[in-house]
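[Automated response] Your request has been received and processed.

Submitted sequence:
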Amino acid sequence: MIGVLLMLAAALSNASASVLQRRATRDEPDTRAFSLRMFLDLARRPSWFLGIAAMTAGFVLHAVSISLSRIAFVQPLLVAELPLTLVLASMTFKLRIGRRDWTALAMQSAGLAAFVTCLSPVGGDPSAVPWQVWLVGCAANVAVVGALVVLGYVGRHEHRAALLGIATGAAFGLNSSLIAGVGAAVAHGGNLFATWQTYGVAVVGPSAFFLLQNALQAGNLVASQPGFTLTNPLVSVAWGLAAFHEEAQSGPFLVGVAAGAVLIGVGTVLLSRSPLLDPDAGTPTRSGSAGSG
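Generated structure:
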């Protein structure tokens, strides 16, 4: 139960970070994507630093939650980040939540509850995973992220934001899996700094953060947030079931898992079209130094 509450708190922190950082990055021109100049500009904006603080708090809460619970159980709760982002965006950008948005929120909430309850994985131990499995899993994960980054880099505006959002989610999903490995090793009496996953987190975490800033800069939250929100827990659940050997419930519970997944997917599609995630709509497209996100 503590792990669930901590993960929901992490989702709230991440939602706050997304809104604050999007507010800071939306005026950055496309020419500064993937550049140091973009970060120098952002460093002069208080909302960006508040977003970093919120993201750091979310990271800590997330790491503790994963250490206390099975990753395939608590990680799907991060889907709550999207509706929380919607609510926070409505307050930040002074927009009203419409009836369709409330319907989507209800669908996603019900789907999340059904998915997590019916999945209820047991067993699994990241510390018992052979290094060969870690190697293959990490290589495949990194390859997917790399392909998405390349496709996003050659894309423009919302297309780039969507692909980079998915890449960011996949990178954070890998980071969560590495954190689970660190937590398991320490729980078994291992030394934090003698565990290779610790250094993996030190590389993957900042890389995922870098991708997130570029995804937020590339386009509106309506483009980047859905892919990031869904891909992160999806990758983590895959790690939990395939690599860590966590066992989900079977039989009739699979119907509940499938129904929950459908509700989450439909709710996410509806939420992704909300004007609350597109506060810059109606303003000119960026071409030089300012404009819409």
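Summary generated for your ticket: The chain has eleven helices and no strands. Residues 281-293 have pLDDT under 50 and may be disordered.
If you did not submit this request, please reply to this message.
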